[in-house]
Design brief:
The structure holds 2 protein chains of 2 kinds.
Chain A (H helix, E strand, L loop, with lengths): L7 E6 L3 H10 L8 E6 L7 H9 L4 E6 L10 H15 L10 E5 L5 H18 L6 H5 L4 H4 L5
Parallel strand pairs in A: 1-2, 1-3, 3-4
Helix pairs in contact in A: 1-4
Chain B lengths: L3 H4 L32 E6 L5 H5 L6 H8 L1 E4 L8 H6 L5 E7 L2 E3 H13 E7 L1 H5 L11 H9 L20 E6 L9 E3 L6 H13 L64 H4 L17 H12 L10 H9 L4 H5 L4 H4 L4 H5 L26
Parallel strand pairs in B: 1-2, 1-3, 3-5, 5-7
Antiparallel strand pairs in B: 4-6
The chains are: A alpha/beta, B alpha/beta.
């Protein structure tokens, strides 16, 4: 069987992380092609609902990239993003999703190399975790549901 | 009936009670409504505490007026109708079935399918039928875990000792469901239990024959905060406390005081009854259409509000300390909506465990509205 290729949705802030990803490209750095970047104005714009939506629709991991602390174009958007991700990671296990599937990273516009490293590292981590829903999650609520499946099946 | 009822236009303040329900006919003993005869109503409970059945009394003396205009054909909490009585009714012979409670047992499913077949309109009445309700928090455990915990190891389903097999209790479904995941739902009267104003609004519409578009939820689309009299000034959260830890200031916004009030993401329609009484909103009217998933919307809002002094790297440990004061996340943020909102993993979605939310405005065959779930 071919190796599991995780799908990653990356919300990247246009000022730092997205520019960093651009730099990784123009510098011809190699990194795994598993990431789908989505440009957002600021990491603080990323709603927890988007992250869960991505995971629900089949992403194995979500990467949120923002500016380093103190560098936010909007002064404090990255701090807000950090608090949101902190709370989100607390609720994810209760919903049966491994919190490690969500990652917040600071990548500046000059850190193309760092972006490539972050993606490579995240891909390796998600490979180890396996496809979403395959691990601990399945045991929680649905254990008996496939057989009984609400009278329909 | 009250003489002033005739003169009062629809929607004017009711000096006699909290309900906006207004009698619209000359003599309640011979009701003149757009219905040819008295509309037949059924009220049924599934996995319910009974509070919804009692809630009809909340409208005050308007209940006399409402009841004089309808014919109750099935209401187990009130009379003693049997399932056979319901089965004997022709399909579509009930004008509206108001169903409260979460769907938890095989019998619940059979009964609501039967009611769907017999009723022209099905209304999800109360938070359980609407979103799953408090009993659906049980979905955080499996059915086997629940039964093992309550009945002990080695339990088995069966009739009482010496009783006939048919006396065995109905099977639990794998999980609790809101009504809309079992049958097609035409309207929703939300709340735990529905507040008097919204019950009145529903009966006003129903008895006048001026029902809104199918799928309508009888509550406001705007957030509860809009009708809350408390004042909002700080707009920051310096600590998070639970209701028993604080005697709240009577004027100030509860969220500003550190109580997790779901007002910002919850529909209005109850005149902010709980915040007015010093208790934070727990979201029983369901989220506003804009909020979508109430828990995730609230996480977003709370994270934005939390402040431990000047924002910066130094504040991070203190911010986390505040965020850690938020305990029981599911019970606090999804008290009424676990089966509707708790984001399930893609695998569960693919397995069809989570039903598609109704309402679909397209009528389906009676009793065929239920989405088939599972590993078909």
């Amino acid at each position: 069987m071919a190796e599991f290729e995780p799908k990653i949705v990356a919300f990247l802030c246009r000022w730092c992380a997205y520019a960093g990803a651009d730099l990784a490209g123009t510098s011809r750095l190699k990194y795994p092609p598993n990431v789908v970047p989505i440009r957002v104005p600021c990491s603080g714009r990323v709603e927890p609902a988007w992250v869960v939506d991505a995971l629900r629709q089949g992403a194995d991991g979500v990467l949120i990239g923002g500016c380093h602390p103190g560098d936010c174009h909007y002064v404090s958007g990255n701090y807000k993003a950090r608090r949101r991700v902190y709370l989100l990671k607390k609720i994810l296990p209760e919903l049966g999703i491994e919190p490690d599937r969500v990652r917040l990273e600071w990548v500046s516009a000059s850190e193309g190399k760092r972006f490539a490293e972050v993606v490579a590292d995240f891909v390796a981590e998600l490979r180890a975790l396996g496809p979403i829903g395959a691990g601990s999650d399945a045991s929680r609520v649905t254990r008996d549901e496939e057989s009984t499946a609400l009278r329909g099946g | 009936m009250r003489a002033e009822d005739e003169a009062r236009p629809k929607g004017s303040p009711d000096s006699m009670g909290p309900t906006p329900y207004v009698a619209r006919h000359e003599n309640s003993a011979s009701p003149v409504t757009r219905h040819a005869s008295r509309p037949k109503i059924a009220v049924y409970w599934t996995g319910s505490c009974g509070g919804c059945d009692v809630s009809f009394l909340e409208v005050g003396e308007a209940i006399v007026d409402i009841l004089s205009q309808v014919e109750i054909v099935f209401w187990p909490a009130l009379a003693d109708p049997k399932r056979e009585d319901l089965e004997a009714m022709p399909p579509g012979s009930i004008d509206v079935a108001l169903i409260n409670g979460t769907i938890r047992t095989e019998e619940n499913v059979e009964m609501v399918e039967l009611l769907r077949e017999k009723a022209k309109l099905v209304v999800a009445y109360g938070a359980c039928a609407h979103l799953g309700g408090v009993p659906s928090l049980a979905n955080l455990s499996t059915r086997e875990e629940i039964l093992g915990e309550v009945l002990g190891e080695g339990w088995r389903r069966g009739p009482p000792p010496g009783g006939p097999e048919e006396d065995a209790p109905p099977d639990l479904l794998p999980r609790a469901l809101p009504l809309s995941q079992v049958v097609r739902v035409d309207y929703t009267v939300p709340g735990c239990p529905p507040p008097a104003g919204l019950i009145g609004e529903f009966f006003n519409a129903f008895l006048s024959g001026e029902m809104p578009e199918p799928g309508y939820v009888f509550a406001k689309a705007k957030a509860l905060c809009e009708e809350c009299p408390r004042t909002r000034e700080e707009r920051v959260l310096k600590r998070i406390v639970r209701p028993h830890e604080l005697l709240p200031d009577p004027e100030e916004c509860l969220l500003d005081q550190g109580l997790i009030c779901l007002g910002p993401v919850t529909r209005g329609g109850c005149n902010a009854a709980c915040p007015q009484a010093g208790m934070p909103c727990t979201g029983c009217l369901g989220p506003t259409p804009k909020a979508g998933d109430p828990g995730l919307a609230m996480i977003s809002a709370l994270a934005s509000l939390v402040r431990a002094g000047e924002e910066g790297e130094e504040a991070i440990p203190k911010e986390d300390e505040i965020l850690d004061q938020l305990v029981d996340l599911i019970g606090t943020l999804y008290k009424y909506g676990v089966p509707t909102f708790c984001p399930l993993s893609p695998e569960r979605e693919r397995a069809g465990v989570r039903g598609k939310a109704s309402p679909s405005p397209v009528p389906s065959q009676p009793g065929r509205g239920r989405r088939k779930g599972g590993a078909a």
